[in-house]
Design a protein that fits this description.
single chain, 524 residues, Aspartate Aminotransferase, domain 2, Aspartate Aminotransferase, domain 1, 7-stranded mixed β-sheet, 15 helices, 12 strands, 9% strand, globular, binds pyridoxal-5'-phosphate
């Protein structure tokens, strides 16, 4: 059998190592698929083009000498190639996505329809502003609702993801400290407090900006104690970055006291708002004493990660940080709405933007989707979505608590339920093995080994968009797997996945040494 340099067959439909149960390499009606370079050939084309007429080259001898070697396929071959590959992609539209800390919820088709309206979808960012008044009004409306839902007086719309929003909020905090030092003198602050359970982007953002990170230990119950924050506070602390609800799926009970302590120490409170889906319409972060918080539009207001992207991470800001919000921003004038891009040419009105984060105004398509979600749900619908997200997570928690183990005891969670691996002790099965066995059952694995404060963590977030029937099926399947694990059927787990197109891959090597260029097996 001809193999390429990676040891993969070079013809479609030849049995591969991982899927040798059939002669063809296909299984059921799912097809094995080779690389497009392996099934196409350079001398084939899907279109019939006329011969190029005789001409003289004008490239000064720089023209290509050897053929480019692109694979040629007919249209049906091309269609089949990409459709087969697409069937190997798991998506929120094909099944439950239990990943925790990364809300994957249904993205209503209405959102897509609105985002594709030519008046929004076909705009160019350099169009004269008087021709895009509707888009500017939409941004203004979205900004208004985000401020209303969070109880915060300002918002920067342009950040393009949660992590980008963290950078935005922390740059505003840094600008506020710099302005204070310029005004009153005093030392620069160089430390950012980050609890142990934080998402990796939090310490990464702080470190990227040159801050040193001081870690705050979690309590036995998975939350942060105000005493621990107090003990870590000092005059060189610029901010705390706290996630609420936190990545253990718990609401921080001392969040108000923590905000007070941080402010008393002259520092600011950055809240990672990625878990806002649990509290929209229930809690306004501004009421908790937060100074800056990013909102992942792609987690809270549908358009999930993996649902086609891109992301969008607007940042709401307190009155203390509002003057430092980045450019650009929308203002309303007598002549209409205007995107202000250059403060030096403006009156300023007390604004001192720290700069700008993006070339243009942000992710327009995401703004349209998020506003569509808000308007179609209404205030009551958004509140109901949060309540159902929490209810669904607790339904799974209670459905599995007799088989799985909960690291912080048997108590209610917010939008995601956290289990650890102590229930697997003695079975020879790890969290990873269990996750691989879920793939065989047709489920995308939950978030594994995060948060780091829990051994062998399994973090499950069903979101509000799953039905009771879907949750029951999930609980039934995971329960059956757990029973199999406890009854000594280790092979089912250690050899999983048995039915996936590929089995266990070296994921670290794939990430560290990606092979992005195709080398033909026949080339030297
Ligand atoms: C997803 C997430 C982030 C980062 O958001 P991105 O949009 O992926 O950059 C930060 N913190 C938490 C808790 C998250 O879940």
């Amino acid at each position: 059998m001809p193999m390429n340099t990676q040891g993969r067959p070079t013809q479609p439909g030849e049995a591969t190592q991982s899927n040798a149960a059939t002669f063809s390499g296909n299984s059921g009606l799912d097809h094995e698929e080779a690389l497009i370079f392996e099934i196409g050939s350079a001398n084939k084309s899907g279109v019939d083009l006329p011969e190029i007429p005789a001409h003289t080259q004008r490239l000064g001898g720089l023209e290509r000498r050897a053929p480019i070697g692109l694979p040629g396929l007919s249209e049906p071959e091309t269609m089949r190639h990409y459709v087969r590959l697409s069937r190997q992609n798991y998506a929120i539209d094909s099944g439950l996505y239990p990943l925790g800390s990364c809300t994957m919820k249904h993205n209503a088709r209405l959102n897509e329809k609105m985002a594709r309206l030519p008046g929004f979808g076909d705009l160019h960012p350099l169009q004269p502003q008087k021709t895009v008044q509707g888009a500017l009004i939409l941004m203004e409306m979205l900004a208004g609702y985000l401020m209303e839902l969070t109880g915060m007086p300002a918002v920067a719309l342009s950040p393009k993801a949660g992590a980008h929003g963290e950078l935005c909020g922390m740059l505003a905090i840094k600008a506020a400290h710099d302005a204070r030092v310029a005004r009153e003198g005093g030392a620069k602050r160089s430390v950012v407090l980050v609890p142990e359970s934080a998402h990796g982007t939090n310490p990464a953002t702080a470190a990227f900006m040159g801050y040193s990170v001081r870690s705050i230990p979690a309590r036995d119950d998975g939350t942060v104690a105000v005493d621990a924050v107090q003990a870590a506070l000092s005059p060189d602390v610029a901010a705390i970055m706290l996630t609420n609800p936190n990545t253990c799926g718990l609401f921080e009970p001392e969040v108000v006291a923590i905000a007070q302590a941080v402010h008393d120490a002259g520092a600011y409170f950055y809240c990672d708002g990625a878990n806002f889906n649990a509290i929209v319409g229930k809690v306004r972060p501004g009421d908790l004493g937060i100074d800056a918080m990013h909102i992942n539009l792609h987690k809270t207001f549908s358009t999930p990660h993996g649902g086609g992207g891109p992301g969008s991470g607007p940042v709401v800001l307190s009155a203390a940080l509002a003057p430092y919000a980045p450019l650009p921003f929308v203002i309303k004038e007598a002549a209409g709405y205007r995107l202000v891009e250059d403060i030096t040419r403006e009156s300023g009105e007390g604004r001192q933007p720290f700069g700008r984060l993006t070339a243009f105004h942000g992710q327009m398509g995401m703004f349209v989707r998020a506003l569509t979600y808000m308007l179609s749900h209404g205030a009551d619908g958004m509140r109901a979505a949060s309540e159902d997200a929490v209810l669904n997570a607790n339904y799974i928690r209670v459905g599995l608590r007799d088989l799985f183990s909960q690291p912080f005891g048997d108590r209610p969670c917010m939008h995601e339920v956290l289990f650890d691996d102590s229930w697997l002790k003695g079975t020879g099965i790890t969290t990873l093995d269990f996750a691989k066995a879920m793939i065989d059952e047709g489920y995308h694995p939950m978030t594994m080994y995060f948060p780091l404060v829990v051994h062998g963590a399994m973090l499950i977030e069903p979101t509000e968009s799953e039905s009771k029937a879907s949750l029951d099926q999930f609980i039934g399947t995971l329960g059956a797997l757990a029973s199999a694990a406890k009854s000594g059927d280790a092979q089912r787990f250690t050899e999983a996945p048995r039915f996936a197109p590929r089995r266990r891959l070296d994921e670290t090597k794939a990430a560290r040494e990606p092979r992005l260029v195709y080398t033909s097996p026949t080339s030297p």
